[in-house]
From TrEMBL, chain A:
Nucleotide-binding is among the record's keywords: no
InterPro entries, sorted: BP-dependent_transpt_permease, MetI-like, MetI-like_sf, OppC_N
Family: Belongs to the binding-protein-dependent transport system permease family.
Organism in which the protein naturally occurs: Solihabitans fulvus
The protein's name in its UniProt record: ABC transporter permease
Annotated Gene Ontology cellular component terms: plasma membrane
Residue intervals passing through the bilayer: 37-57, 99-124, 136-156, 168-188, 227-252, 277-298
Start and end residues of each ABC transmembrane type-1 domain: 97-295
Automatic annotation (TrEMBL), chain B:
GO terms assigned for molecular function: peptide transmembrane transporter activity
Organism of derivation: Solihabitans fulvus
Pfam families: SBP_bac_5
SUPFAM superfamilies: Periplasmic binding protein-like II (SSF53850)
Record-annotated Solute-binding protein family domain positions: 83-460
Protein name, entry field: ABC transporter substrate-binding protein
GO cellular component term of the entry, any: periplasmic space
GO BP terms in the entry: peptide transport
From TrEMBL, chain C:
SUPFAM superfamilies found in the cross-reference section: MetI-like (SSF161098)
Membrane topology, record value: Multi-pass membrane protein
Name of this chain's protein: ABC transporter permease
Keywords: Cell membrane, Membrane, Transmembrane, Transmembrane helix, Transport
Annotated TM spans: 12-30, 97-119, 131-155, 175-193, 274-301
Taxonomic source organism: Solihabitans fulvus
């Protein structure tokens, strides 16, 4: 080895080459029997449904404010109570799902995608390309997330502009991905460095397989697991990061409703109106848990060793 | 983790003495060393945005130190904001254009040198001279010759170093001549930009900034950026507003929430404003008991409707918006009773205030609002812009919701990331809708609520309002030497605003502050600052 | 080994120039006027703006400004803020505080994260595993400011266990709770990583061999399993140190810690380009040194790794 593998999440499976089809087929059969998978998949389905058709769950307009209800506690009428502006928190939580999921999932996907591609290239080709990509990643990783996000989001939106909702969501996703990819890259690079040394990969190289084929057929299946662990947790972390950005006044903003916006709205009232924080925070936690459990189950199922 | 043990030891004897005297309050004595005249008082502070020079301080953070370090000719009474002579022996004028000022003898700067008339004249000349880049330079603009030292056009070089309107007549006497008669000038002299500077400053301005020397009740000890500014009592101080403690510790906080936690824990003694978290449901009353302070602030909140935004130069629309805001409900719920509905464009605590100047337009009336909205023919989206931090967002969101639901139009709150970004929009006239316009008076005069905001070309006339009749009345009032007569004319001008609705008055803030158990008494003044001479340990 | 270290050090040079350039350009590219809102509710006088623009070379093209800045920086002069404070002095008071805070955060993260990870990795899925999973994820899904506020209010104001804010001295003791808040984000990640690592190494040949040799379980776990499983975690922790230092913006705000996080935040808001560039460049350098250190440590722990 020329350089240490920085993140060695998994030892390579000793089984060597497995036929793709049966691997996924086995995994599916195994997954169906696991309660963890079933529960987490069910939660994610419900949350997805909320995101796609929120009107199925509530008929209340999430932005309708009635100050007579300001700070009202949860009741039969409004299960989650009302916020300071007298808006129905249940309706807001349901309608907030969409923006939160979009930000969490797409930024995690984008992060993993950018990071994995760069990581696998750096790990596979090594030498000066590796050094260049690694140090380039270091610049982004060393830059504080909040700093980077502030700079990117304020640079993109001049104070005079009043950007549209979609534009802000896209910008938030992009800034999260641009600032987080080095982590995914480092994980992927290390996993690649390890996998590269495995006998069957060496054999494939010796047989003259194209780099493309080696990367996709042999390296990727072995390096995906650690990245997956990261990605599932990242979904939750990014939903939280969205809240921090909203708190600092540079993230999503009204009339967009998201869990992050709700949590940041509650920040001034934690002591006096705790239910403003409680419900959106609970939804974030449950969703994140579901994603992690799902990721866990899928990873275990894909790993032939654990059978 | 634990509180510093040495401090607990220090507090122990105090607690014993208090218990022996039968007046033990059982408080969390933490920051006050020993009580009485030799104790320390810590107050909430924010990082000053400029050097601690009188004419360079335009915000509260720096002003806390500056107003303790220096005093001027006048001061304002904390209870009713009336000016009284502090260092001035007399200020005489017959025409409100030429002022003869004599100062009291025997007052000293902290370095022992005496405060003389020339210290005032030099300080004001320094503040006004363009290359010195003082932030409050424009406060000297009434003085004759200001345009020569600070040309109004950018890029022009000053043609003089001193203003021709300032003349030293003796060690303790000087004369000020204005460009034109200005009846409020005398009241203005209590503002911090008009404080004197010692000779030591002019020898080494750069070094002075690190260790300022003033003539106020407190002298400078040390400053650690972003942490604290420490001052101590100046025992030679001659003024009536002496302090009754030894050391003043201005602790710098990045958030009011953190400071409030410290106040409750007894690590901080005084806050002049409380965070939203404390105000909800009157939480602060339970937290602080009888250590709550209230005052009347000289400020007013309005929602400005810029004339330059297409479609907004429409009186019916202005009326509709004003009628559609349920001020009563918003001040009671979202603002937790820390504001009262506004009924005019000047604060109710100021001399010359008249109730109900805004009249019917400031009363919530959905039916009438809808009528006017129909008449206005406005289509599209309404927006209100403001910086979102510091609890600015919530009341404006509520106002927007009130407008939207009354008029059946969509209304959005548009946040700016910070005050700077918001002011940039205001200064460059780039709002795309309504905006927050909160004004607090620099000096207690009805004039300061009208001229800067609504006069044609006024320094903060962000909405570009212009009414020749209004301008004429202001000019007339400025030139009226008799104070009461001048106020009557300013009132006429004020009444004119109700015809045009250049902005929509919304609420008037009641100042709410608090002090810790370490203090026996404290007072909050109309400028939203601690009246430091009223602290009692 | 020596050549390897030398190479890594040489790589620091382009990174240094790259970072300073990127940050400097970005901060000045923020389309806000640094002098808007500086003078309270009135616009600043033209004379003030003119003098300040000249003083900070704001009239020059950006690239010229950057080289003027760089020239001064190379002579050790970090420049001045708009309020006339020396940036070098600001950094030297704030840096040690943030370093202490980040160290404590990493320590707490390591102790709790690795502890929880080992515990759950050794046992199979069960109640304990789920408990650790849920509690670490609960922390991760709560934004830092919420965790901070809640701990500050409960521990500081209601129970009087800690002082709600950190004093100027910012001693290690005072920084434990803020450190926990800061570290809570990565804690879940450390726990998961350790758990995965342990679970996989349990089936590794060297562990099986050790067990087959009849070594006591404690020894197998302590020497063979832990040592090998901790390597990837260590990498994460090392690189996290740098990230945490810059990520402390919100935590420092909540507990009123006078560290670099707050300085960066205010610096960006006030568009203090000189201040932000100085601090961030140092941050990136610290980050690079930390990752170099981790790579070297790696070789010590894992004899299979050789540097050439």
């Amino acid at each position: 080895m020329t350089e240490p593998s920085e993140l060695q999440l998994s030892e390579a499976p000793p089984g060597g080459l497995t036929r793709q089809g049966s691997l996924w087929g086995d995994a599916w059969r195994e997954l169906r029997r696991k309660p963890r998978f079933v529960i987490s998949a069910a939660i994610i389905l419900v949350v997805l449904l909320m995101a796609v058709v929120p009107s199925l769950f509530t008929s209340v307009d999430p932005n309708f404010a009635d100050l007579d209800h300001s700070r009202a506690l949860p009741s039969g009428d409004a299960w989650f109570g009302y916020d300071l502006q007298g808006r129905n928190l249940f309706a807001r939580t349901v309608y907030g799902t969409r923006a939160s999921l979009i930000v969490g999932v797409t930024s995690a996907l984008l992060t993993v995608l950018i990071g994995s591609v760069i990581g696998i290239v750096a790990g596979y080709y090594g030498k000066w390309l590796d050094s260049l990509l690694s140090r380039f990643g270091d610049i982004f990783a060393g830059m504080p997330f909040v700093l980077g996000a502030i700079v990117i989001l304020t640079t993109l939106n001049a104070p005079t502009s009043n950007p549209s909702q979609t534009r802000i969501i896209v910008q938030v996703v992009l800034s999260i991905a641009v600032l987080s990819w080095p982590v995914a890259m480092r994980i992927m690079r290390s996993a690649t460095l390890v996998a590269k040394q495995l006998d069957y990969v060496k054999a494939a190289r010796g047989l003259g397989a194209s780099p493309f084929r080696i990367i996709f057929r042999h390296l990727l299946p072995n390096t995906l697991a650690p990245v997956m662990v990261y990605a599932t947790i990242a979904v939750g972390a990014f939903i939280g990061a969205e809240a921090t950005l909203a708190f600092l006044g540079i993230g999503l903003r009204p009339p967009v409703v998201s869990w992050g916006v709700m949590i940041s709205d509650s920040s001034n009232y934690v002591r006096t109106v705790p239910h403003m924080l409680l419900f959106p925070a609970a939804f974030v936690t449950i969703t994140v848990l579901a994603f992690v459990m799902l990721g866990d189950a899928v990873r275990d199922a894909l790993d032939p060793k654990s059978r | 983790m634990r509180r510093a043990r040495s401090i607990t030891w220090l507090a122990l004897p105090v607690a014993l003495v208090l218990a022996a005297a039968g007046c033990g309050s059982g408080g969390d004595t933490n920051s006050a060393g020993s009580g009485g005249e030799s104790g320390t008082v810590s107050i909430y502070g924010t990082e000053p945005k400029a050097t601690l020079l009188p004419a360079n301080t335009t915000e509260l953070g720096g002003n806390k130190a500056v107003s303790a370090l220096y005093v001027g000719l006048l001061a304002y009474r904390p209870e009713d904001a009336k000016p009284y002579n502090l260092m001035a022996d007399s200020i005489k004028t017959s025409d409100a254009k030429v002022f003869d000022i004599t100062i009291k003898k025997g007052w000293k700067f902290h370095d022992g040198s005496e405060v003389k008339a020339k210290n005032y004249v030099d300080a004001w000349n320094y503040g006004a001279y363009a290359p010195n880049a003082q932030q409050a330079a424009s406060f000297f603009e009434n003085i004759q010759g200001y345009a020569d030292v600070n040309p109004p056009k950018e890029g022009d070089k000053p043609t003089a170093q001193t203003m021709s309107g300032l003349k030293v007549l003796g060690d303790y006497e000087f004369q000020v001549t204005l460009n034109a008669p200005f009846s409020v000038f005398q009241t203005k002299l209590g503002f911090s930009a008009f404080y004197p500077l010692p000779d030591a400053f002019f020898k080494d301005p750069k070094g002075f900034a690190d260790k300022p020397i003033g003539n106020g009740p407190m002298k400078f000890v040390s400053r650690t950026p972003n942490a604290d500014i420490k001052l101590t009592r100046f025992d030679d101080y001659q003024g009536e507003n002496k302090v009754h403690f030894k050391d003043l510790d201005i602790k710098i906080y990045s958030s009011q929430e953190a400071a409030y936690s410290d106040l409750l824990a007894g690590n901080l003694d005084f806050m002049e404003a409380l965070p939203p978290n404390a105000k909800v449901a009157d939480k602060y009353k339970a937290d602080l008991g009888d250590h709550v302070l209230t005052t009347h602030l000289l400020g007013i909140s309005t929602i400005a409707i810029p004339y330059y935004v297409p479609g907004y130069n429409n009186l019916d629309l202005r009326k509709a918006i004003s009628l559609a805001i349920d001020r009563d409900k918003i001040t009671k719920t979202v603002l937790n009773g820390s504001y009262v509905p506004a009924d005019g464009w000047i604060s109710s605590g100021i001399e010359g205030y008249q109730p109900d100047v805004c009249g019917e337009w400031c009363k919530f009336d959905p039916a009438k609002a809808k009528d006017y909205f129909q008449k206005s023919g406005f289509t599209g989206k309404l927006t209100i812009a403001s910086n979102a931090d510091g609890g600015r967002k919530e009341p404006l969101e509520a106002a927007c919701a009130s407008i939207a639901q009354t008029l059946g139009v969509s209304c959005e709150f548009v946040p700016s990331t910070n005050f700077g970004a918001f002011r940039q929009l205001a200064d460059s006239h780039q709002f795309t809708g309504m905006s927050r316009m909160d004004w607090s008076a620099d000096y207690p005069s009805i004039e300061d609520f009208l001229t800067p905001i609504y006069r044609t070309g006024g320094s903060s006339n962000d909405s570009l309002y212009s009414n020749p009749e209004f301008d004429k009345l202001l000019a007339q009032a400025d030139a009226t030497a008799d104070k009461d007569a001048a106020i009557k004319i300013y009132q006429q001008a004020h009444a004119l605003l109700a015809k045009d609705l250049p902005s929509v008055p919304v609420w008037d803030e009641k100042g709410i502050g608090g002090f810790s158990k370490n203090l026996k008494a404290a007072k909050l003044n109309f400028q939203r600052q601690a009246e430091i001479s009223e602290f009692r340990l | 080994m020596g050549r390897y270290i030398l190479r890594r050090f040489l790589q620091l040079i382009p990174v240094f120039f790259g970072t300073t350039f990127i940050i400097y350009t970005l901060v000045w590219a923020i389309p806000t006027d640094p002098f808007a809102g500086k003078c309270g509710q009135r616009p600043c006088p033209a004379s003030y703006i003119e003098v300040m623009r000249a003083k900070f070379n704001l009239g020059d093209p950006l690239i010229v400004q950057y080289f003027k800045y760089l020239g001064r920086l190379l002579t050790g002069d970090f420049g001045e803020t708009f309020a006339g404070l020396s940036v070098g002095k600001l950094i030297s008071t704030a840096y040690p505080v943030t370093v202490r805070l980040a160290l404590i955060a990493v320590l707490i993260e390591a102790v709790i994260g690795i502890g929880a990870g080992v515990l759950t990795g050794l046992r199979n899925k069960g109640f304990l595993d789920n408990l650790v999973l849920v509690s670490t994820l609960f922390l991760i899904s709560l934004p830092v400011f919420v965790t901070g506020f809640v701990l500050q209010i409960v521990l500081g104001v209601q129970w009087h266990l800690i002082s709600p804010t950190v004093s100027r001295a910012a001693t290690f003791g005072e920084l434990i709770v803020p450190g926990f808040v800061l570290g809570s984000l990565s804690m879940a990640y450390v726990a998961r990583l350790t758990r995965t690592s342990i679970a996989e190494n349990r089936h590794a040949d060297f562990v099986r061999t050790a067990i087959a040799k009849g070594q006591p379980t404690k020894r197998v776990v302590g020497i063979h399993l832990l040592r090998n499983s901790v390597i990837p975690v260590l990498t994460l922790l090392g690189t996290d140190l740098g990230a945490l230092m810059g990520g402390a913006i919100v935590t420092e705000g909540v507990f009123n810690i006078n560290g670099i996080g707050g300085q960066i935040f205010r610096g960006i808001q006030d568009k203090e380009g000189v201040l932000v560039t100085g601090i961030v460049t140092l941050l990136v350098l610290v980050y690079l040194l930390a990752s170099l250190l981790v790579d070297l440590l790696y070789a010590v722990l894992d004899p299979r790794i050789r540097y050439d």
